[in-house]
Task: structure prediction
Amino acid sequence: MKAFLLTAVTFIGFLGATFAQTDQRKKEFNLTASSLAIQGYDPVAYFLQGKAVEGSKSNAVVYEGLTYYFSSAQNKEAFKAAPAKYEPQNGGWCAYAMGAKGEKVSVDPKTYKIVNEKLYLFYNKYFTNTLKSWNKDEVSLRAKADASWTKFFKPKL
Result:
């Protein structure tokens, strides 16, 4: 009986931590009002097709509280097999702004870069393309962005 109770308490604790993680992701990640990530762009397409491709609601996946759209069933399955590989870094916020100032700034999903098999998104509006600034000091900005992001979101271990 004690073993059962210990198992039940452990499971309930795990569920509580999982829900807390999901809530934190919804709060801190760059999402639309309906929890849609990357403004509906397919995160796998950046890697496999080498370009930003809009996904569709018919190929949607909810992963830890965030909804991702995919342009094909194949991309959807690739994501389901390895979501951490395809999710954008820094919660989908502008990598340059996160690195330069530790700020959450919206992005243009068509402005991106893959570095060391990680997807980084950038602000690109009103004659300001932060990818250009990022490219001038990528190594330093990437390290600073990673450090800044942990102030907003601490991933589960």
Observations:
- Helices lie at 2-28, 43-48, 73-81, 83-86, 95-101, 130-136, 138-152.
- The chain is about 50% helix and 20% strand.
- The beta strands are 56-63, 66-70, 108-115, 118-122, 124-125, 128-129.
- The longest strand covers residues 56-63.
